NYN domain-containing protein
Amino acid sequence: MFLKENNFAYIDGANLHKGIESLGWNLDYKKFRVWLSEKYSVKVAYLFIGLMPKNKELYKYLQESGFTLVFKEVIYDGGGKPKGNCDADLVLQTTRDAYENKFNKAVIVSSDGDYAGLVNFLINKEKILTVLSPSNEKKCSILLKRTGVKISYLKDQKLIFS
């Protein structure tokens, strides 16, 4: 445990939801937030998520669970499927916080290879603690794996926060 650390988590909400869903279980976000705090000394947990009015109660629950929500306006693809496209916002927030020395180490929660550049940046700045992959090993991006960062898989924690 990192008791004296001031670590921040940056969570791709859609990736977390889809990854856990693909494992066939539901995530207890309150337990997940406590676990992030206890296991990785996460003081601030940003959750990047698409804003949809019908999910107002979910947003309230997530905030009450200790997450700092960062909303992105949802757009719809050709098939009517909502897309939050929060990747750039997550990268920008993490980079800004790193340059402003707001945290000691970052925990990135995603299996998405789009974050490989961010992970390499954090490695070079010695500001990365781990990547937590919501997907299993086979579905976690090879681009993330190639960075050499420590990757932990949430599937291994099912008993703790499902």
